[in-house]
UniProtKB/TrEMBL annotation:
Gene3D superfamilies: Nucleoside Triphosphate Pyrophosphohydrolase. The keyword DNA repair applies. InterPro entries: Mutator_MutT, MutT-like, MutY_C, Nudix_hydrolase, NUDIX_hydrolase-like_dom_sf, NUDIX_hydrolase_CS, NUDIX_hydrolase_dom. This is 8-oxo-dGTP diphosphatase. GO terms for biological process: DNA repair; DNA replication. Residues 5-135 form the Nudix hydrolase domain.
């Protein structure tokens, strides 16, 4: 049995009209710096996953979306060294504003088949396959 704390993180695949997905590069000073991830973050106490994701998309990218525009796609359950990550991935195709890197080094729109060219956190691997199937 693992005694690691469970960490609930919500993540989002923003999908544009060309079926490309937005990934964001983690900054220096954070764990897994330099890796590319799906925008998102930890669900705070008292928050729903959807509210957390809407908040994170605003904080990280400066865009606005709403719950009706968030479709659950898949989730990962991944053992890191100190925590066990449970991370649902939502797909969002409708938002307002243009994503800008407010908390990341860079943003990139990538075709799902090309996601494997970008180093991502180990937990994310199964999500790439789910996005390739969807898109
Ligand atoms: N947003 C996001 N987080 C991910 C992904 N994959 C993955 O393992 N994570 C992990 O989920 C956690 C997200 O936390 P966060 O973004 O709110 O917090 P953070 O980077 O400031 O936290 P940290 O530096 O303490 O790890 C991190 O530990 C991050 O490494 C992903 O694709 N998107």
């Amino acid at each position: 049995m693992s005694a690691k704390p469970l960490l609930l993180v919500v993540a989002c695949a923003l999908v544009d009209t060309d079926r490309r997905v937005l990934i964001a590069q983690r900054p220096e000073g954070k764990s897994m710096a330099g890796l590319w991830e799906f925008p998102g973050g930890k669900v705070e106490p008292g928050e729903t996953p959807e509210a957390a994701l809407i908040r994170e998309l605003h904080e990280e990218l400066g865009i606005e979306t709403k719950e009706a525009c968030l479709a659950p796609l898949s989730f990962v359950s991944h053992a890191y060294e100190n925590i066990h990550l449970l991370m649902p991935l939502y797909v969002c195709r409708r938002w307002q504003g243009t994503p800008e890197a407010r908390e990341h080094i860079a943003l990139k729109w990538v075709r799902p088949q090309a996601l494997r060219d970008y180093p991502m956190p180990p937990a994310d691997e199964p999500l790439i396959a789910a996005l390739c199937d969807l898109l």
